[in-house]
# Entry
Amino acid sequence: MPISVSTIPSQVTQFTAAEAITAVEGEATLVLQADPTVGGSTLSAIAIAAVTLPVEATKANMEAETAGYLLVPPDLARHSPGMAKAWVHITAAGTISAPDYNVASITDTGLGNRSIVWDTDFSSVIYSCVTTAWPSANDMLVKHDSAAVGSIRLLVIAESWASNADEPTTTVAHGDQ
# Structure
């Protein structure tokens, strides 16, 4: 809806050059500027332009990938379905190699046996977790075991497929939180 001068509050009828005003209402902006035809002492409407003003996105907007002109604050970007919800690099010794994202702790319970505890739980055990073992001169297999909403257990299995091995790993998780 375009703004007309008549929609500016009635108590404001004249503006001095020092009182530059931009009035915003709905999806339109009224730009007022000094009018040189009257000596620059009053402001008059010089442009009425239709604009779409951003509205702050909600968590629901992000999860549903709602289309629109939405302002996404940094704390909500992680709720987009395609964004990684957690990632971590674990050293061969079983410790977190900083930085990480959304990882509360690592529990190293034995040879090649580690649990990652998430800072923010997933909404269910249905989430995607990808882990690679690297760098290693040997072929490795990483098995995800015992997935829970707040953690996941990793088993790093050596090339012989007969035993576990302590190797550095990198894990990325996607899903609904």
Notes: The helical segments are 59-64, 74-77. The mean pLDDT is 76.
